[in-house]
Amino acid sequence: MRLKRAFRVWQRNFTVYTKLYKSSLALNFVEPVLYLAALGLGLGAFVNKIDGLPYINFIAPGIIASSAMFAAAYECTYGTYVRMFYQRTFDAILATPINIDDLIAGELIWGATKSVIYGTIIIVVITAFGLVSSPHVLFVIPVLFVSGLLFSEISMIFVAIVPGIDSFNYFYTLFMTPMFLFSGIFFPIETLPPLVAKIAFFTPLYHLVNICRSASLGHLQGNLWDIAWLVFVAAILAHYPFRMLRKRIIQ
After folding, report:
1. Which residues does 132 contact at the CB level (< 8 Å), separation at least 6?
2. The pTM is what?
């Protein structure tokens, strides 16, 4: 695999995105903002402070994390699948000097980039609304790239095993949605039953939420473990999309 060739795949996806970004924004940006408004302002009027924070301030950093997660997941499930099977974009790319590993690496990097784009947009929005207490929240941006790689890897592993595009419903219903609801975005996981809290601890979104929340409050040192966890798991999973998708593309 050559990084320069992987970059060409990333560049192709970015060029397409600049022409279609308006519809993508509606999916990955408007929905998180609606969650923030409906739950933070609506439900927040009936919820006491959590950890000394008004409810909307508590959930706002978590929306950064969830927006970044879903951006990478949508791109590297539906986006990758459509490019591979329906548009036949992969066939066209592989007719060039770019090989399969270059292609997969470019897809992963593009998924991580989408994670950074939408996470950063949410950072700007919640900062504009006065929901961020510290400029340290900017340190979240490089972490979003690492977590974006992790979510992209998980998504592309699933692409390698699904029999058809409709099967992504299982991925989102049984994996993504529970992680979204039980990763500490809307309430501390300590309030959950012990077994559920332990399961939540092993989800990547839980660690990303911790990082985003602490950084928005100006506390960074306490999250070195969460950052290390994301880096370690991303490194462990890194080879699986290559090994599994290589077989799927060759078929």
Report:
1. 60, 61, 123, 126, 216
2. 0.93
